[in-house]
Amino acid sequence: MSAGRRVQRAARRVLAFPAARRVVVAVGRRAPRVKDAGKVLLGVEAGGSRHLHGKPRVDIRGGHMLLPHQGRRWPIVLVVALGLEPGDTEVVADAIERVQLTTGRFRPLFLVDSGQLGPFRSRSYAVETVMPRAMYACVNPQDSYGDYLADRTQSIVHAYGVRSVVPVSVAALRDGVRPDELRLLGQLEL
Amino acid sequence: MSPAQHYDVLLASDLRLPGGTTASMAEELRAQAAAGYRTALLHVPSSLANRGLGIEPRLRRCLDDGLADLVVAGTPVHATLAVLRNATVFDAVPANLPVTADRAIMLANHVRVDAARVQHYDVAVTDQAVTDWLGVRPTWYPIGPAVRPGLESVRDQIELAGTDWLNLLDVDEWAVPRTGVAPGAIPVIGRHSRSSAAKWPERAADLLAAYPDDGSVRVRVLGGADAVADVVGHVPASWTVEEFGARDPRDFVAGLDFFVYFHRSDLVEAYGRTIMEALASGAVAILPEHFRSVFGDAALYTTPAGVREIVTRLSGDRDAYLAQSAIGQQFVRATHGHESHAARLAALIGPPSDEPRTVPSRQRPAGRERVMFVSSNGAGMGHLTRLLAMANRADERIEPMFFSLSQAVGVVEQYGHPWEYCPSRGDLGCSVEEWNELFPVRFAEVLRRYRPRAVVFDGTMPYVGMVSTRAKFPDIAFVWSRRGMWREGTTTKFLSRGAIFDLVLEPGEVAAAADRGPLVGRGDSTHVGPITLLDTADLLDRATARAELGMDPDAPALLLSLGAGNINDIASDLDLFADAAAALPGGWVTYATKPPIQRRGGPLREHVTPLSVYPLARYLRAFDAAVVAAGYNSFHEVLMAGVPSVVVPNLATTTDDQGARAAYADAQGWAVAVAEVTAQSAADALRRVTDPAWAAAASARALEAYPANGAGEAMQHVERLIGVHR
């Protein structure tokens, strides 16, 4: 066992005592440099690698209106549309394509609860899915749909380096949200 | 400020805390709702949780289900009874929490002073803080015998209840049928706890005695084992270790024969909720002697060195195992059931003010074994359709579910099968390396969430991420449905990945005699008949099919179905055949399909009617002739239906030898093969298949040669593998 490993082991054992942990946490809150040093000492992930400042881990294409290597640096926006009825995915894809065309500052990644993925495929947009609420209740009635949704979203955000999550409602897209308001979902720093 | 809302019970604590505190609150919330007690839930920030905000998931679900109301600043609350959990949280109550109560109880769910003489809370300070806040002095309740002595010694400073406030657990949500350790099987032992050093024995000898690394038992750990490496120097490679929260603890303990929990000698566990959960599931608990005061004869007690003897003895004595398992479950049911909570509340504050509520069940549906059908995307829908054919023929004790890379996966929904989707590399436009990192995470996520007994994969090659994930799920049987007819010279360097499968099935191929690919003669697979979604009996007759499609009942009809066109450009081929069809004598009507996964698609010729139905095979007999792709599904379906056909091989596929398949059918006189589509070849082929004499003979030959559907047989192999016998 290396010296560093032995130090980590000893430090972890000390921190197993609640009183010691409380003291260390309190000191860490007051002195960020001590906290950082402690993380190095313990070999604890500092959190930096989980946040790549918007750099995607899985680099998706930006859509059919872009040439193959265009838009690769644009931030990814997760557009979440749930409770979809047949035909709704076309409405969602159409609306977001218009926003992208008029702002040109982001790549959409869709999260839908529908099997009608054709409208995204035909536009070369990436899409992820979740089970519809009713189906999930049949499959895993013991679980919370809200937790499932949150877990899936968190996993997608992490996998793709998503910069922003935007829930949209099809009813609003049809006749509620003005185009100049909807365009705000693409207002991200490049 | 608005007037105070009245509740029967206010539950308050640091709602962010993981583990026993919030798990117990969630159980009480459910019991209260079921009894009709109106409940408010209050978050009291403390130094115990080092993250900002965010309520523990079990409590969040109670709020989502409407079982309680969350108290926020703008809504003052008055409760008949305030139940405050975890004394450490209340040593300094933030000002302006908008709550009043008629009476309060403080649940001490940790020892006041532990074995290392560390004091975790000062009862006088907490008692005063709560009194100042609520205006009433709390009555203190320990949550079990391990906590009571620490409060008895300071009872002059507090009002101490004479009974303990036992935690709740719904046994029915945890219980699984137990059959004991099967003869010859290796017993599975495991534990569920957070990975702090205090939760493990401090001596390597004790640790490895309780959790052996010698193959005599299988060791599973939920909650991480970093502390083990600190003690032993490494985490034994034979253990299966998952991080805390990696999966539902119910699934975890359901897979254990024995729950073995030994910790550092100076740790005093106030209760041990995870032990209670294991007992409720029916696992036999093996614990240090000091837990006897809590669990009595519900568990077995020994030293780390004595674990092996108990495991060996009970593994060899099924009756003794089942008797101990039953004692554990009965103990939890009798002492920690929801009914007991309603009774103690009634004794404190009287009957509930509301009607009993229906509390959503968290119980897992029992009785059916889940089989996860996993398909790659491919050029068309062949992989998905073969799996669907098997799923549709599953025994009623099987619950099929799909996880697919195909964007057409939604079609399985019309057969009642649930599905999850993972985008393929092609659909994302990312690199192979990126996708190879994405897939195993997603695959493992799906397996953890849905816990299938078996995975049936249909794809040309198992993915790298599938191989790495498989090792983490040793209990799940893996089956590979591996279509034959690979192109000659196809690389076989990835075939070694097939070692992860417990069974390799090879769907039959009517053109197998023409197979010159690398799978021929390998002898590593079980062969079944050709797999098609429908049986011959499922196909509609000509008149019915035409009526359902709205076709003319008499006019000769030609079907053009050349696949999705995702590898090759089918548009020009389609147009050439459409033009040739227009020139046919006799008033032929032409139809063309648009598959669900078609990426591109230009307009059809004016005289061609588009058709979008699934499954197409059901309607094939509506047509007098067809032009189809020579992929596995279309090819077998037209032969099965006896439709005189032109088969057009896609020569750009990676492995599927469509050229050989089409040529063989041509040689047998079942169909006409057109390898290169030109105006002339299209016209010649159509002339041939629309010749009544040739068509009748070809149809008869194809029907005579076609064997029975192998889908049901394939499914039975899967069922036998997981112990479901028809």
Describe what this molecule looks like in 3D.
The complex is a heterodimer of chains A (190) and B (726). Chain A folds into two domains: 3-46, no CATH class; 76-186, Rossmann fold, CATH 3.40.50. Chain A is built from nine helices and four strands. Chain A has helices spanning 3-15, 18-30, 32-42, 88-103, 118-122, 133-139, 145-160, 170-175, 179-182, and strands at 76-81, 107-112, 126-129, 164-168. Chain A has a four-stranded parallel sheet with strand order 3-2-1-4, with helices on both faces. The termini of chain A are far apart. Residues 45-55 of chain A have low confidence and may be disordered. Chain B is α/β, with parallel strands linked by helices. Chain B folds into four domains: 5-160, 3-Layer(aba) Sandwich (Rossmann fold), CATH 3.40.50; 171-336, Rossmann fold, CATH 3.40.50.2000; 369-527, Glycogen Phosphorylase B (Rossmann fold, 3-Layer(aba) Sandwich); 536-705, Rossmann fold (3-Layer(aba) Sandwich). Chains A and B meet through helix 1, helix 2, helix 5, strand 3 and helix 6 of A and helix 2, helix 7, strand 16 and helix 16 of B.
Number of separate strands of chain B:
26
List the strand order in the largest sheet of chain B.
Answer: 3-2-1-4-5-6-7
Rg estimate of chain A, integer Å: 22 Å
| CATH fold label of the largest domain in chain A | Rossmann fold
Which structural category do the helix and sheet elements of chain A fall into?
A: alpha/beta
Provide the CATH superfamily of the largest domain in chain B: Glycogen Phosphorylase B
Average pLDDT confidence of chain B is: 91
- CATH fold node name of the largest domain in chain B: Rossmann fold
Instruction: Give the ordered list of helices and strands of chain A.
Output: HHHEHEHEHHEHH
Q: Name the strands of the widest sheet of chain A in spatial order.
A: 3-2-1-4
Strand content of chain B: 15-25%
Using the alpha-carbon principal axes, give the shape of chain B: elongated
| Helical stretch tally of chain A | 9
Count of DSSP-assigned helices of chain B: 24
CATH class of the largest domain in chain B: Alpha Beta
Principal-axes shape call of chain A: elongated
**What profile does the largest beta sheet of chain B have?**
7 strands, parallel
Biggest sheet overview of chain A: 4 strands, parallel
| Helix percent band of chain A | 40-55%
**Weakly predicted, low-confidence segments of chain A:** 45-55
Uncertain segments of chain B are: none
GO molecular function (chain B): hexosyltransferase activity
Domain Glycosyl transferase family 28 C-terminal (chain B): 616-697
Pfam family, one (chain B): Glyco_tran_28_C
Protein name (chain B): Antifreeze protein, type I
